[in-house]
Amino acid sequence: MNIRHTITRYQQKYILPSLGRGLGVGAFSSLGRGLGLGLLILLAACGRGAYTVPAQYTEADSIAVLYPDYTDIVIPANIAPLNFSLLQDGATSVVVQMKGEKGGELVSGGGRDLKVMMDSTEWRSLLTQNRGASIRVDIYAEMDKGWVHYKPHVLTVAEEDIDAYLSYRLIEPGYELYRQLGLYQRNLTNFDERAIYENNRTFEDEHNHCINCHNFQNYSTRNMLFHVRAQHGGTILVRDGKAQKVQVKGDSILTAGVYPSWHPSLPLVAFSTNKTGQAFHIYHPEKIEVQDEASDLLLYDAEKNEVSLVLSDSTQFETFPCWSPDGKWLYYCTANEPATPDGVQIPDSMAEMRRVMFYNKFFYDIRRMPFDAQTRRFGASELVVDCAGRERSASFPRVSPDGRYLLFAEGDYGQFHIWHKSSDLFVKDLQNDSIYALTEANSDDVDSYHTWSSNGRWIVFATRHMDGNYSRPFITYFDKKGHAHKAFCLPQYDPEYNVLLLKSYNVPELTRDAVSISEKDLRQCIYETEGTQATYKSINR
Amino acid sequence: MAKYKKNNKPMEAKAAPQDAPKKASKGGRKALLLLPVVPVFFVAVWLWAWLWYGDVFTIARESSFWSSNAVLMRFMEGRPWGALWWAGRALLMLFRWPVLGAALLALMVSGCAWLVGYCLRLRGWWRLLQYLPSAAFLWYVAYIGFDLYYESEPGMLMGVPLMATAVLLMVALIIRSFSRHHTFPSLIRPPKDETVRQNRAQLLLVVLIVGATMGVTQWMRPYVRVVTTMQRQMMQEDWRGMAQTARANSELSYRQIAAYYAIALVHTGELGNHLFDIHLDYDEPYLHGYQGDVTNAANYYIPDCDLYAGLVEPAIHHAMERMTMDGPSLRTLKLLIKGALLRNEWEVAAKYLCIMEYVPFEGKFIERYKPMLRHPELVDADPELAAIRQVEPLHDNFENMLTQPTFLGYNAALSEGRSMQALYNSLIVHLYSKTMPQFMLRCQALQGQTPPQSITEGLLLMSGKYPQVLQSFPALEYNKSRLLTFMQEVKPYMGSHETRAEHAWELFPKWKGYYPYYYFFGNLKATKRKDNNAGTSNQGVN
After folding, report:
1. How far is CA B308 from CA A36, A207, B384, B407, in A?
2. Fewer CB near the terminus (10 Å): N or C of chain A?
3. Residue A126 main-chain phi, psi, to 5 deg
């Protein structure tokens, strides 16, 4: 029984990917995938139901160590199976038994590679049956001297689902260069991933471009945008499913639009415009530092194709705009130019490097401005989170859909928290002004770019805590009391996927629906249009 | 062909019975005189690819990556001819043992020649043509040098002959299926219709093909075998061998050779004595970037140089850039593993080691480095990694604040180090970049010691300008006479930059290794050009 299953897993791991994808490069793609799918069905049929819970075993005094760690977590009922590997030297096979508090049972297992890949129908049925209840997970490992039973752990199924789609960019952990990258969308209820848009697969200077900063209006994909940099550059706006390219940069604006935020209901996008510099540590765990050399805030009217400067103070670095869910406030981060410490003389030759020298003296606060939708004017700015006073620094303010919590990343300094190991997720309760860390979700490593689910119960964020270098999306449940729970990694069909993937997940964003515009249409828009130049309108205060 | 056979048959039939033994003995003598050329071609290509060019193909393999795992090979999806390069990369893995990889390559190349002959029904003198496509391929492989694998698709080496063999084999099978008379010729026996002269001509052609290919590598791309041999020796930690290889080719002046020579000297502790033993005036190698631009390919050696200069993070930085641009390669992954272990980044080291487990024939590497995970004491006990630790920085800085490339800029700016080796590295960088005031400043730390040879020579050279040096280093007096001899000899050439450049070569055999020679006559091209691109320093020499 186990042998047969081992063979099945072996075939799934080595042969099927080779047929379906490895050989599937280029011309053999369809044939390979077809063969792969056929074999998969055949093998799945043979392998399913092959596991039984061992009758005899000895008790271990600890819980099993799993990769990814899916022990004692809160999960949405609509999540894809949490496939995992058992990390246990000497084990030759594994069996897992899941029993729901409200009934239902799932028995699965893995062979010599100790990978447990569960049947999605059985998984779905178990979770649906146990919505709002818990599932006890018993894991058994077959060792030389017989079966070992680990202490059970629990999966709690939340009442609330998570939005079904997660969009992200896959890119190598960034230094200076980029090559093949793309925006992808993953269906969280299964393992389907599709490319929203990928740049050129092979290096062609005349077509080489980067894609970044995708953003959606109010968790819907009908209106979305992303930027294209370098060749064929511009901002790609998708409105009502139709793509157009716009050029936001003008003479009065520092650079093209960078960090975007769609107004929840109006055809308006707040952008930051940042002139940034990048520096590389030679002996520091954080490797890379990205700094604002200048930054302002813009408001772009997608209907009129007009852009205006909202904040443009040369002594301030304003960035990361974010609308409140009611559209009445614009949150953003801002920092002062750090003062040169007393007694420090900077030679003229080093003036350009001044900001790099004081990279750890940049502290960003979170502020907000009221917005009048009628007049489209902003009111006076007010401080929301004072980080500079504590010599800390905030980035990426995101307000919960109910408007009560302000979620942000806080680190020791600077704004490029995706490389700051001190960066953790914090919330401010806007009702009582308390600020606290999401301790249960945070890790010792980078916890940064985050997004709320549309019901406010789930947060997806990018963390590097799996290996310190490659960011992965983690999901945490944010309960009604305002507390986060232990975060878990985005499930993958092959639990080893995150080890083998040599790209980082960047800017995870949840949406309710799938992106409907095709990659072909986006490519056409990017390659075949120059982009309409936005008209500049004077400052909008 | 059919006509040819028809014409021959009656002739055979007409042979007189009494002539038969004579004919047979003549035929036997002829058979003895004829050599099967295709097998000879196979052996010649095999020996060439194994013994002559094996190191190049070994480094091509190291610059490649292949795994049966789909996730790991995702970077090749959608590339033009992706499936072919995928297969080519798979076969390239055999160059883990050059004897095997070369055998497979030779098999495909000679097989192509045999199949061309069969498919085109070449007879008699026309048979010479069958070797030409294979010859063109071999010549091309030799001609492109580093372009075989650097910023290009390494799967080409085995992919092209694989495709050619497959296509020709298919055509041959089709011909064989439709023509009953057209049987496959024997591989080990010369064709019956081949005369001795034709046979000899083919043998000569085969010798010429392999000889010409060797000639291309030796005369047009002489640095390629030297550099790759040094890289192979570096993989085997044969530091002395690396240094010997460079010194044996001291007249070749390429950045890649200088870079790997410096790495070897750091490991043998001879940087202060022998760096200037080779010619450092840097000719441009035949090398092209992604878009066919000619490039000096500083990235070829920068990750390695950064690593062995103790600059682990810059090494990781540049290795990651390579991975971004080219996809993973064994070279990059191995460097990243060593870097992660040195920085105690166990999880990411484990990740890369796990990936290496999916690559065929890398068991030894994994066996060596996997036990080091979460065991810094094992990292410190490893001779190669321990040597890197000796010169790691004491403090952080930014690459951007240093002269580029970082391994030179960092050592030029060094004011505090972990070991004497770090100080020597810094002093040698200043000698190399001819920044003598900074050199003299750092030499103060050596007072009362006997510095390495090149540093002594640098000090002596500066003693004219800084007479107090002779008091701090009294032993310099013993070296004065050689300096005087040198200055006297080179006096006629000490005019303009151009004059010195003109005579640098004629003085090199006698004065190589002597620092004053380098100071006046070495590294002049960059000085003249004021080359500030990657791989150069702001001091104007690189």
Report:
1. 45, 37, 9, 9
2. N
3. -65, -45
Nearest to A25 among B69, B79, B291 (CB): B79
User: Which is nearest to A493 in space by CA: A135, A123, A190, A125?
Assistant: A190
Which of B346, B355, B398 to probe the A interface (max A CBs under 10 A)? B398
CATH number for the domain whose boundaries are A165-535: 2.120.10.30
Closest partner residue to B83 (CB to CB) among A23, A173, A353 is: A23
The 10s digit of each residue's pLDDT in B61-99 is 999 999 999 999 999 988 899 999 999 999 999 999 999
A331, β-bridge pairs: A322, A368
Architecture of the domain delimited by A51-159: Sandwich (2.60)
pLDDT in tens, B139-181: 999 999 999 999 899 999 999 999 999 999 999 999 988 887 6
Looking at residue B353, what is its pLDDT?
Answer: 98
Q: Are strands A306-311 and A405-411 parallel, antiparallel or unpaired?
A: unpaired
Specify the pLDDT at position B32: 61
CA distance B405 to B321: 15
- Burial class of residue A376 (count of CB atoms within 10 Å of its CB; 0-12, 13-18, 19+): middle
**Chain A contacts of B394, Cβ < 8 Å?**
283
Does B72 contact A at CB distance below 8 Å?
A: yes
Q: Comparing C-alpha atoms, which of A277, A260, A278 is closest to residue A269?
A: A260
What is the model's pLDDT at position B11? Answer: 41
Q: Does A444 touch chain B (CB under 8 A)?
A: no
> A-B interface: how many C-beta pairs under 8 angstroms?
148
* Residues contacting A516, CB < 8 A, separation 6+: A221, A222, A241
Question: Of A13-17, A523-527, B380-384, B490-494, which gets the smallest average pLDDT?
Answer: A13-17
Give tens-digit pLDDT for A386-435: 999 999 999 999 999 999 999 999 999 999 999 999 999 999 999 999 99
Encode burial over A250-266: b for 16+ CB neighbours within 10 A, e otherwise. Answer: eeebbbbbbbbbbbbeb
Distance between CA atoms of B147 and B98, rounded to whole angstroms?
A: 19
A370 - beta bridge partners?
A329
Interface of A with B in 42-61 (CB under 8 A): none
Q: For chain B, what percent of residues have pLDDT higher than 90?
A: 70
What confidence category does residue A205 fall into, taking pLDDT thresholds of 50, 70 and 90?
confident
Vertex A157 angle, CA A99 and A403, to 5°: 175
Nearest by CB to B355, which of A25, A469, A500? A500
A165-535 has the same fold as A51-159: no
Shortest CB distance from A27 goes to which of B83, B314, B395?
B83
The contacts of residue A258 (CB under 8 Å, 6+ apart) are: A213, A227, A271, A272, A273, A274, A295, A319
Strand A260-262, strand A115-116: pairing: unpaired
Interface test with B, best of A19, A25, A358 (most B CBs within 10 A): A25
pTM, full prediction: 0.90
Any chain B CB within 8 A of the CB of A494? Answer: yes
Q: Among A335, A395, A394, which Cα is nearest to A362's? A: A335
Q: B367-421: per-residue pLDDT in tens?
A: 999 999 999 999 999 999 999 999 999 999 999 889 989 999 999 999 888 999 8
What are the boundaries of each domain within chain A?
A: 1-49, 51-159, 165-535
Inform me whether the C-beta atom of residue A177 falls under 8 Å from chain B C-beta atoms.
yes
Residue A273 in this model has a pLDDT that exceeds 70 = yes
Query: What is the predicted pLDDT for the residue at B20?
Result: 46
Asked whether the beta carbons of residue A283 and residue B397 sit closer than 8 angstroms, the reply is: yes
**DSSP one-letter string for A476-496:** EEB-TTS-B---EEPP-SSTT
Query: Which residue has 């950064």 as its token pair?
Result: B306
